Every structure is written in structure tokens, then in C-alpha cells.
Amino acid sequence: MRTIKIMKKLIVGALSAVFITAGVATAGAHAAAPQTDVTGVITENHVAVAGATVTVLCNGHTQTDTTDAFGSYLAIFTTAECPFGVTVKVTAMKGGNSGVTTGTVQGITTKLNLAIVNVSIPEFGLIGTIMAGGVGVGMMAYMRRRQQMQS
């Protein structure tokens, strides 16, 4: 009889521990802040780019990630940092190649794919030289024409 009472107490104690643990685990799961994930794939010439640095700007908050072997990146914000409907800016760089795209937060996960390209911009000095040469040639032609008209 005494053994049965001890067994009942052990069973009640074990069940209590299970219910308390389940309650704590459930409360802990609900305590996590909701999040906004911004994800996508970085490509170059339709090929995934591994090792690109990706910067995601959302509502004044910045997250940085490096693409994996499949060109994928992931930036995780709280919904307070990156709420539904705001604009997200994604910038990716690797070597001399870069790209930028924007999109709107659509919910828990927003997917923004981006292609990076190598766009070289000539130095301003070269552009200035070409412009100055063109203006000089134009002025010489104008002055010569003016002299011919006066003679």
C-alpha cells in the first residue's frame, strides 16, 4: 500500500514537471520578437556569386551578410526595425562588381534577387580633356569662319 502511494506521488510529480516544462517552453517561444527576413540570390551573368558582401538597409537599420556557395544571403531584422510596407535597399559587391536593388517589405520574408555587373566609369580627367579639346577645335573653327566673313 505504501509503495502505491509513493508511486502515485512520483507519477504526479513527473507529470507536474512535464506540464511546467511545457508551459515554460511555450512561454519562451512566444517571447521571441517577430522578425522580418530579407533574402535573395546574387548573380553575375546568370551564375550564383559566392563570397559577395551584401548590405541590407531597412528603415535606417543595416545588416550585412556574405553570400554562400549558392549566392544566397539572409538579413534578419525585428519587425520593429523593418516593418511591413517600408522600402528595403540591397547592395552587393565582389571585386570590382556591384549592384543595388530596392523593394518593399512584404511580410515575414521578402525576397530580393540582384545581379552584379562590372561597370567602369571613365575618369573625370579624361572626360574633361575630351570636352576641352572639342571646345578648342570649335572655337578655332568659329574664329576662322569669322575672319573669312570679314575679308
Task: Provide an overview of this structure.
The protein has three domains: 1-32; 33-115, Sandwich (Immunoglobulin-like), CATH 2.60.40.10; 122-151. It has helices at residues 2-31, 124-150, and strands at 35-44, 47-48, 53-58, 61-66, 72-78, 87-94, 97-104, 109-111, 114-115. The mean pLDDT is 81. It is an alpha+beta fold and 151 residues long. Strands 1, 2, 5, 8 and 9 form a five-stranded mixed beta sheet that branches. A four-stranded antiparallel beta sheet has the order 4-3-6-7, with no helix packed on it. The longest helix is centred in the N-terminal third of the chain and has 30 residues, at 2-31. It starts with a helix and ends with a helix.
